[in-house]
Design a protein that fits this description.
The chain has 333 residues and is α/β, with parallel strands linked by helices. It is built from 12 helices and 11 strands. It binds phosphoric acid mono(formamide)ester.
Length: 333
């Protein structure tokens, strides 16, 4: 029985049980051990999609996306559907009571009656926190303004470890990662750096490539927190000069700020003529702009499509763990 098998896997992995009935709001909630167990479960979903068919049968997801989304919304909905559950989708907050002045708390109170889990993307960074306080079903932050996008970051780290699983062995050679973006303004970058800070043993150097000085590239305390976690971080404004030494190049150039697309760092571009190291992989949360040329799509550097594909399995694993019924009382955020 797929349901029983999954329950057994989760029961055997103590760290996965800590996700049951918990909100997922920040990547800071994920310990390395939880991540690794989650990735193992994601890999089981990826290798054996038929084996775990309907663990969420009879459960309802409330999918509330008040900002544009292709991947996050559809991959969460695909994951939930493929796990056997049903979905209620809201794509426009002006069609809810919020347009009439209803509070987030009251909307959340209603969500408790209608579904088993909420996935929310909202440009108001506070919305997810305010809803979480009134929810008795778990909520996942699918992007809150410029602040966080934890499940994207989980998919990013899953991709890196799938590319080089041997990184987790004792004698692995550490890698050099370049992150092109603005950690202060980009939620995907912020959440990724937080997760990477738990893998300082496998990262020789993390180069943040930005056309901004440290003061405006990083939020207050962000750089210091990464260094305190043991990461060897350096800021650079020179992409092509760094590329020959980078094993992983993560690039992003847009953020969605107050209902508008904000382009940052568009001086940096990658194409099939870029001086990439042999064997290096490129990651991008997508949607892309001119910073990632389509000429790279047919090269072995393209791991960004695999990254988007893998996100479905990570989300399947996460949703399954979060919606296990336990006696646990939900954390109040
Ligand atoms: N990576 C990501 O968040 O993509 P979407 O905006 O399409 O969801």
């Amino acid at each position: 029985q797929p349901k029983q098998l999954l329950r057994t896997i989760i029961e055997e992995h103590e760290q996965l049980q800590t996700l049951a009935n918990r909100h997922v709001i920040s990547s800071g909630q994920f310990s390395r051990d939880v991540m690794l167990q989650l990735f193992r479960l994601a890999a089981k979903f990826e290798c054996n999609p038929e084996r775990f068919n309907s663990p969420l049968a009879g459960k309802l997801l409330i999918s509330a996306f008040y900002e544009p989304s292709t991947r996050t919304r559809l991959s969460f909905e695909s994951a939930w559907h493929r796990l056997g559950g049903d979905i209620m989708s809201i794509a426009d907050r002006s069609t809810t009571g919020i347009a009439k002045g209803e509070s987030y708390a009251d909307v959340a109170e209603m969500f408790n009656n209608y579904g088993d889990c909420v996935v929310l993307r909202d440009s108001d960074p506070e919305a997810v926190y305010q809803m979480a306080r009134s929810l008795r079903i778990p909520i996942i932050n699918a992007g809150n303004g410029i602040m966080e996008h934890p499940t994207q970051a989980l998919a990013d780290v899953y991709t890196i470890l799938k590319w080089r699983p041997e990184l987790l062995t004792d004698d692995a050679k550490p890698i050099r990662i370049g992150v092109v973006g603005v950690p202060k303004r980009m939620r995907t970058v912020r959440s990724l750096l937080t997760l990477l800070s738990q893998f300082s043993d496998i990262i020789e150097e993390l180069v943040v490539i930005s056309d901004r000085p440290a003061k405006t590239a990083f939020a207050d305390g962000q750089l210091e927190a990464l260094e305190e976690a043991g990461l060897n971080v350096r800021l650079s404004n020179e992409l092509d000069g760094e590329l020959p030494e980078l094993d992983v190049v993560y690039i992003n150039a847009i953020a969605w700020v107050k209902n508008a697309r904000e382009v940052m760092g568009n001086a940096f571009r990658l194409d099939d003529q870029s001086p990439l190291k042999e064997g290096a992989i490129i990651l991008h949360p997508l949607a892309r702009g001119p910073e990632l040329d389509v000429s790279l799509d047919t090269t072995p550097h393209n791991w960004y499509f695999a990254q988007a594909r893998g996100a479905v399995f990570v989300r399947k694993a996460l949703l399954t763990c979060m919606t296990q019924r336990t006696e646990r009382v939900m954390d109040v955020v």
